[in-house]
Amino acid sequence: MSENQAIEEFYTENRTFPPRETFTSNALLTDPQIYNEASEDYESFWAKQARELLTWHKDFTNTLEWNLPYAKWFSDGELNISYNCLDRHIENGKGSKVAYHWEGEPGDTKTITYQELLDEVSKFSNVLKEFGLKRNDTVAIYMPMIIELPIAMLACARIGVAHSVIFGGFSPDAIIDRCEDAEAKMIITADAGYRRGEPSALKVNVDTALENGAQSVETVVVVNRCDLDINMNSGRDFWWHDVMKDAIPICHPEPMPAEQLLYLLYTSGTTAKPKGIMHTSAGYLTQVAFTHKYVFDLKPDTDVYWCAADIGWVTGHSYIVYGPLANCTTSVMYEGTPDTPRESLRNGPERSEWSKDRLWDIIERYKVTQLYTAPTAIRTFMKWGSDELSNHDLSSLRVLGTVGEPINPEAWMWYHEHVGRSNTPIVDTWWQTETGGHMITPIPGITTTKPGSACFTIPGVFAEVVDDDGNKVEQGGGYLTITHPWPSMLRGIWRDPDRYLETYWSTYEGKYFAGDGAKIDEDGYLWLLGRVDDVMNVSGHRISTAEVESALVDHPAVAEAAVVGATDETTGQSIIGYVILRGSSEESDDLRNEIREHVATKLGPIARPKAVFLVPDLPKTRSGKIMRRLLRDVAEGRNLGDTTTLADQSVVAAIQEGAQHSDEN
Ligand code: PRX
Question: How far is the CA of 129 from the centre of ligand 1 (A)?
Answer without folding.
Answer: 36
